[in-house]
Amino acid sequence: xxxxxxxxxxxxxxxxxxxxxxxxxxxxxxxxxxxxxxxxxxxxxxxxxxxxxxxxxxxxxxxxxxxxxxxxxxxxxxxxxxxxxxxxxxxxxxxxxxxxxxxxxxxxxxxxxxxxxxxxxxxxxxxxxxxxxxxxxxxxxxxxxxxxxxxxxxxxxxxxxxxxxxxxxxxxxxxxxxxxxxxxxxxxxxxxxxxxxxxxxxxxxxxxxxxxxxxxxxxxxxxxxxxxxxxxxxxxxxxxxxxxxxxxxxxxxxxxxxxxxxxxxxxxxxxxxxxxxxxxxxxxxxxxxxxxxxxxxxxxxxxxxxxxxxxxxxxxxxxxxxxxxxxxxxxxxxxxxxxxxxxxxxxxxxxxxxxxxxxxxxxxxxxxxxxxxxxxxxxxxxxxxxxxxxxxxxxxxxxxxxxxxxxxx
Length: 409
Fold this sequence. Notes:
Layout: E1 20-23, E2 28-31, E3 37-42, H1 53-71, E4 75-82, H2 87-96, H3 100-117, E5 125-128, H4 129-145, E6 149-152, E7 155-158, H5 174-183, E8 200-204, E9 212-213, E10 219-222, H6 224-235, E11 240-246, H7 250-265, E12 271-277, E13 280-282, E14 285-286, H8 297-302, H9 307-315, E15 323-324, H10 327-344, H11 353-364, H12 369-385, H13 393-405
């Protein structure tokens, strides 16, 4: 599966500093010190109802992570998956009377278009669950051989008790885990499981549903969590720098994935930091596919909204915050974009050297994009009120905003 084209990232004078970011597992800020190549895995979409603003906010957060790393003169090895076979996708295809493969391909193509328009840097490896199946099967077999998996009526489950570190990503108690498991794709009430929280690794073939030859596992398809583990281990290995996604993935997805990987390898942790973006609401409710209260990037683009304004609307909120999309949020972003473009359109202006460092400082401090926007706002206000004589300043501001915030002026 191919990703989308990369926009050029301008080089800035000087060099950025190491990123301090909130780690869900420890509950506090950690300073990331990757080697020459920083490694990040971000969980991708299940391809239906793409791309809504909740998606866009999540991928914007991890695009900022990449940009901070690039500014430290590191390379970035970024991997993202596509869950192109899963119950919600199959249910949507059946509801709409369309082929599930065609639906997945159509929505993935739309996602690529939206990511390109928003200038999100693409992953080096963009892997679908279906294409990962040949690598998933031996991992499930190994877990079974290790005594960490068991058969239940043909389905293969992972035993969470096989990982002594289970629970150390989300830090939730058993009752909270059980509740979220039921809400987020698990089956804690299934009779016969060793532990209600045990997640499925391999689902035996069901009539009328797609399945693949799983060798000794029989025909079926993979569970949700092992899919990402197989892809991450294959392309990044253990101990990579950031595991990212929305806050609703901390449990069960990232918790279970970490346990799978840790049992498979005998190493801990799977990732140096587990980083989660907040949720976006509309009309007082979390924006979600199940509720249908979605604002789509593609629809805004069709309505003539500049993608740079959409990106500024996302950047106006701290990535960890839960916030609500409104018409005013978008209008504020459109107005800001207009002010910034007017400010950099002049041939000279106030010195921007300090601005570069202000934006860097804001972003290295837990991706504080609102503080970065405020710094650019102050420069634009000085440009409007006082002007300046530095002929390189407007260009430097444009490059800074492009390189670090992904907004083309």
